[in-house]
Amino acid sequence: KEYGRANYQIYAPFMTGSTPYEELLLERELREALENHQLQLHYQPQICLKTGALAGFEALVRWHHPQRGILGPLQFIPFAEKRGLIASIGRWVLFEACRQLKAWHDAGLPKVPVAVNLSPLELRQRDVLADIQKALATTGLAAQYLEVEITESVLMQQSNPAQHNILRALQALGVGISIDDFGTGYSSLAYLKRYPIDKLKIDRSFITDTPHSVDDVAIVTAIIQMGRSLQLKVLAEGVETAEQQALLTHLGCDLVQGFGLSRPLPAHQVPSWWHRWGTQ
Ligand code: C2E
Ligand code: CA
Ligand code: CA
Ligand code: CA
């Protein structure tokens, strides 16, 4: 009951005030977590506002810590980045998401894509392209069913050629590219035309106070219009109320994701949610 009501948020992040010894301990625990299958992906549905159809899932990682309970990504991803463990975690997330989606497709569930988050560090340090090609080949998931979510900060370093090539190669493979937390990063929008982007995800902070905040409604309206002019899909994150969904439908937003529709679900709960959604 109320599973996933962000019950992990009561824990402080690992990094604040921890001693070098504690950090060493945590690093060891996180390494063990990878080996002992303590990491788990939850899947949050995204729907198309025009048709009401399920449009995809975002995969969000959790750590089922044997003593501390369920830890959310904000409590260990930054730590993992700092201690050089993000590549291993990212690779696991990618393979697991592809494997799970392929299994659902094979089980006859409607074919929708899965989105995985790539932190800026991963795009710089990991051979992401090789990892993605390997994950797709190993699991048999077609590239069109994979999306990567990256934040604006990744795209802001003045035309980084390596990065540009990775994104072009992903696009050539058929992997979708979304800008996560759109609007929170930088004021320059020049990167939107420099990189092959498919989708903007409007950050939750702009959605929370709609429809009441006149300013936020103006910002969301402008982003949706810009997305449409640039032929990008626009997804609103953090949609919690029917009023917010009605406003976004009215404004012509393409997709929504948020607690109003569903919290991120553990994999075993997805098929029944899917079934209920499809038949309502
Ligand atoms: P994000 O990519 O912006 O993911 C959306 C976050 O908002 C998720 O938190 C989700 O549970 C939460 N959320 C979704 N709908 C609502 C809503 O209606 N209201 C509210 N209040 N919150 C909502 P979560 O799962 O704690 O993830 C936090 C962040 O951790 C993610 O933010 C993403 O940046 C990062 N993250 C998650 N999984 C991964 C991963 O596998 N790899 C990397 N590198 N980062 C990850
Ligand atoms: Ca995301
Ligand atoms: Ca986001
Ligand atoms: Ca975020």
TrEMBL record:
Residues 23-278 form the EAL domain. This is EAL domain-containing protein. The chain holds residues 432 to 711 of 715 of the full protein. The lineage of its organism: Bacteria, Pseudomonadati, Pseudomonadota, Betaproteobacteria, Burkholderiales.
